[in-house]
Design goal:
The structure is a homotrimer. With about 130 residues, the first copy, chain A, is of the alpha+beta class. Helix content of chain A is about 20%, strand content about 30%. A 6-stranded mixed sheet of chain A has the order 1-2-3-6-4-5, covered by helices on one side. At the A-C interface, strand 1, strand 2 and strand 3 of A face strand 4, helix 2 and strand 5 of C.
């Protein structure tokens, strides 16, 4: 499998990472996308106190990262959704339903965690995508 | 790698997902399986208050999903095990030892989280499998 | 894709797992590495109460596991970093910056969880690597 090419990058349209990591790693046709938080391209927090707005921004970031590789949300095979409170589950589901109004849906794991990178973040969504 | 075929599905023998996600996504020979909770095929909760029984049901779901693709638990390469309390660790290990009585064992990460999709769930197990 | 070979192992230089799991599963060129805790090769806890020292040990374990397959940390494409308290984030970042002083950096997700396998563990780091 000498055709596995690795590329780690921070695509345009998404804020620069706050620490030493890449937003996405590509290995062959597989994209491993870092957990996305609700920050716009300038790094400003979006949707303070609003889990639905935050989830929308997380998905917008995932979408921008996929687009950098010619991909779409339909290429996501698996997401992991971290929320910091029970109450956010239906709000995040609502944002997800906007993105995926009809099947096929990616696989997903949802867990409630103690916290994310900073207290203002209520939602984090990471993804694995497989391009055509 | 034009031979990567993607398929997202909800195999028979496992409850329909409660939200817009698939139980499993297949990309080539790799299966990304959503975090499984202790629900039987009808969606009824199994093992209320009993982490060992819940873990058994999670593994039963993983097994059913793998079987849909001709796979077995031996095809699991990685699991992630989420539990909601310290006390459940040996109970989940006991269920795991039933499933994998001898090596080789899959890689695994265990973390204690604040909560899962609903309060009655004590254990969630997701997996990545690679078919032959 | 009949060239996918699976191997699950516990490489030398890393403590034997405490339970029935493998430290790493190889599928083709992809390595799925179990969440690593701060234990040395003898199983002794390293860095009690010191998240930076613990993160260093986690990375040392990842490095040893990669080396077993001829890999280096540069082959990591994705890590997931679990910490048990906010305060550990900059400490873990410092250890990470030692390992990855310059780009390219792997993708990463960081979450704060309730707990890890035992109370003395403050940090757990798992990884996916793709070999050449």
């Amino acid at each position: 499998m000498g055709d596995v090419r690795r590329e780690l990058s921070n695509p345009p349209g998404v804020h620069p990472p706050q620490a030493h990591y890449s937003h996405v790693a590509r290995a062959g046709q597989t994209l491993y996308i870092s957990g996305q938080l609700a920050m716009d391209a300038s790094g400003a927090v979006v949707g303070v106190g609003d889990a639905r707005a935050q989830a929308r921004q997380c998905y917008a970031n995932l979408t921008a990262i996929l687009a950098h590789y010619g991909g779409k949300v339909g290429h996501l095979v698996k997401t992991t959704t971290y929320i910091t409170h029970w109450a956010y589950r239906p709000l995040v589901a609502a944002a997800r339903d906007e993105l995926f109004p009809a099947p096929p849906y990616p696989a997903n794991t949802l867990v409630v965690v103690q916290g994310l990178a900073e207290p203002q973040f209520l939602v984090e969504i990471e993804g694995i995508a497989v391009l055509d």
